[in-house]
UniProtKB/TrEMBL annotation, chain A:
InterPro entries: BBS1, BBS1_N, GAE_BBS1, Quinoprotein_ADH-like_sf, WD40/YVTN_repeat-like_dom_sf. This is BBSome complex member BBS1. SUPFAM superfamilies: Quinoprotein alcohol dehydrogenase-like. It holds the Pfam family BBS1. Residues 18-271 form the Bardet-Biedl syndrome 1 N-terminal domain. GO terms for biological process: cholesterol homeostasis; cilium assembly; cilium movement; convergent extension; convergent extension involved in axis elongation; convergent extension involved in gastrulation; detection of light stimulus involved in visual perception; determination of left/right symmetry. It is found in: Cell projection, Cilium membrane; Cytoplasm, Cytoskeleton, Microtubule organizing center, Centrosome, Centriolar satellite.
Automatic annotation (TrEMBL), chain B:
This is Tetratricopeptide repeat protein 8 isoform X1. It comes from Danio rerio (Zebrafish). The lineage of its organism: Eukaryota, Metazoa, Chordata, Craniata, Vertebrata.
Amino acid sequence: MSSVPQELKDTSVASSKWLDAHYDPVANLYTFSSCIALSDLHGDGENKLVVGDLGTGLCNMKLKVYRGTGLLSESTLLDLPTGLVSFLMDLHEPRTPAIAVASGPFIYVYKNMRPYFKFTLPSLDINPLEQDVWCQAKEDMIDPMTLKEMLEGLRDKSEIPLSVRSLRFLMLEPHEMENFVHLHKELPIRRQTVITCIGTLKKNMADEDAVSCLVIGTENGDVYILDPEAFTILYKMSLPSTPTLMDVTGQFDVEFRITVACRNGNIYILRRDSPKPKYCIELSSHPVGLVRMGKNVVVGCTHETLHGYTQKGKKLWTAYLPAPVTTMALMDLPTRGFQAVLVGLANCEVHMYRDKNLIGTIKTPDVVTSICFGRYGREDGTLIMTTKGGGLIVKILKRTAVFDDRDSTPGPPIAQSIRLNVPKKTKLYVDQTLRERENAIAMHRAFQMDLSRLRLAAARAYVKALESSLTPMSASLTEPLKMNAVVQGLGPSFKLTLNIQNTAASRPVMNLAISFLYDESLYSMRTAFFKIPLLVPGLNYPIDTFVECLSDKGVSDIIKVFVLREGKSAPLLTAHINMPVSEGLALN
Amino acid sequence: MEVTVSMDPLFLAWSSCRRRRFQRCADICSTLLAESPYDQEPAATATAAHVSEAVWSLKTRALTEMVYIDEVEVEQEGIADMMLDESSIAQVARPGTSLRRPATSQAGAPTPAVRPMTQSGRPITGFVRPSTLSGRPETMEQAIRTPRTASTARPVSSASGRFVRLGTASMLTHPDGPFINLSRLNLAKYAKRPNLCKTLFEYIFHHENDVKTALDLAALATEHAQFKDWWWKVQLGKCYYRLGLLREAEKQFRSALAQQEFVDTHLYLAKVYQRLDQPITALTVFKQGLDHFPAEVTLLTGIARILEEMNNMSSATEYYREVLKQDNTHVEAIACIGSTHFYTDQPEIALRFYRRLLQMGVFNCQLYNNLGLCCFYAQQYDMSLSCLERALALVSGDEEQADVWYNLGHVAVGIGDLTLAYQCFKLSLAFNNNHGEAYNNLAVLELRKGHIEQAKAFLQTAASLSPHMYEPHYNYATLSDKVGDLQSSFTAAQKSEDAFPEHVDTQQILRSLRQHFSSL
């Protein structure tokens, strides 16, 4: 189907631990780590890859199943998937797991890749006033504009937020409202929240093939635990913010622990028997990935850092990453008792961390957006990654691969061993220093004398420039102005742009005028004198004017620009514009 | 005995021509031609016809020589050639293979922090050549906006610009019409007369600057010579080059080289490749030329120039040294080696080279300016200010004056006299309103005084005047960062990073800003 590009076969230590099983750069898979799972769908001992494909975000949302390197089946999803898990819902033989796809307020449960059940989140309370308003609209007691005004009033004041329908209505253009009201007024209002993350929790046994409950987090900050068979809500917990990432461990009937990263940048740890979070970790930046490793939680943050925390929220370590984190996943090899965190980075690398030690790096041809590690087909250590460009990468961990526990980042920085290119001091230099040493007094005197003369010359020239206001910035305290002029065009017409800026801290400048001085036999200007508006401090005022070159001899001259103050003959500042040669004639 | 016979006027004219008194030669020829006009009426005898032919030919030569400029040297790309370049294949060439994208991170290449850069991201050279005046701008707006004064502006196209301005006499009016009326010339007739048509061609090409007619004549003549005369092929190549038909020019030069190895032909061919933005091929051409003409100075200089433009300063210096071994009065080589030493922190050696130039009789503002700076940085303080003072006395234009004041400002900063520095930078701006560097340095001084608004305005101006400099952007970033305007700081730092990706301070400010933005 496709070959492995050459650049993947580099000889670095990390890549030699992996076999490149499959790479399809145009697999057309756009997904995130939350929507990807490995599961033995048919109970034949061979794990398939189930992917909730986000498509383009508007259409082409698909549920795809891969087997080996090929696509086994695909079915269309109605809405964007937000999470996908595989779980065992009953004890019937053969033990085939079901797939739950969360999208919008629903969970679609598939068995044998056929739709099996649809769970809908319980609807939320509706603002009674909103209900009233819509009732009135239904009976045509109010027109759409009044409806809009009333809803706007409700939106600003009431504590219970408006329903989606009302919000959508408020977004419409006036001419679309009539239709919208007509279409929707018969239906009852509902306020629904959406699912943001999904996870699984073993019901009462810790076995690999035990029945699991679904755990879902919703937009309005609730966490629900669902019964696997009846899909009733077993338990409800609430959080101060919207959960985005979730990790679940334990058993529902015994003891469990749900670690949730929320949109307010905090991580909450929920436990059985408490509907409120037990512990809270406040991060210094937003979490991007959350992985539990044994009893510790590893969080990747937008700060380009990776933090390790204990179950109780105590910080253990911080690792600094070379690039922003795109996704994270757990690499778990129970047969070898090996666990590591896989971190996808925006610089096309996937790093493997065990605690804070970097134990391996995988280079990828594109930025990885989702990672999944586990048993695929009959191979235990398979790493599946999808890329930003829609590619699919499958790598297999070599059975001989050994990971050293020591940190594989090099010890001292490389810059330390680079020798600086300091030029050697030449013999000439030594001779000159000798001369300096011997004639120090004479040299110093000569220099001081020259310096005094230079100061005098500079002061004279400076005073002359100030007196005739030659500088392009004015030195007066009342009108601190700055001007520079730009000429554009090839000729014979040129555009002059004067950029004038008031550099005072707070005071505006008024009553200014601009005048030009030029050779009238060479140039003509439409307006050689005009007033300029009030200058607000700190803003650049570009003022355009046009100059026509009258000569065809290929000569050019200087045009002087004066900024004048009303009632004063001396200009505030002057700019000299060296006009370019008019090229218009040479082209003809 | 008394000799009253005056010298034969034709011989006198020829002699004047050889002594480079072209006006006199042309005058004598004019009188001779007025007596027996060539081409007007059938001559009485064959000898008379030959004489008038010779006079005519001599006059064309004299007139050509008066305005002759070396075709090998003059090279200035016009705006149109630059912006509407269709011969470039890759928009984004690999670094190190194009003059457009010189490898900036090459080992040993000077960074903009040490050596000032031109607009194209190339360090300034020690010797101003037409093609080094300013680099290729990236946008059309920048191309037309760059300070286009009479001395530095780019022409619209190379066909119109400098050739018209310096290389020809056609812009000036003649009192009695042109010497040869090109439109009435029977080219086919002249093409059959090899002796006449070479001078005629040069007259048309250099004096009249009528490349199309010159091309017609050359084509006819080479056909008459049965394509065996390499000279005509070179001339055809020159015409094609002027017309912008670079691939045809290349073909002609290659064919001429196959017939006859000649230094000029190598130079022309390399010029074609430079225009095509193939510096590596140009280097090969030069090196092939060196196989036939070992240690030829012009070829060595050509190699050195290309290497310099490609930021390979160490190799360029080696070739310049090779040039100096052959010709120890080569001004360009001395100046370039001197500036390289100055910017690699060896001002005492640079001082030697510039002193050598002074001994050779170069006596101008730029040289004294460089000497002054070298003395200052080599700690020979007694000489430095007097050199700069002399430079100030020798200036020939406002821009030079601005540059000298700017350097004086640097010296003043070096000795800690900030008032003097302030005055110097302001004077520099008074003489050249578009001096971006002076604006930047003035802004730093203003900032030290605590005038934040003023510093901001100056930095913005500096950034708009010279977008290739990283300093104003970086300074603006630090200033905004201090004031608390993080968003402007970030955008300015990004611009600074574009101009100078390896700048560590910019990287640091960007890193701290990113961290700031991502924290909760």
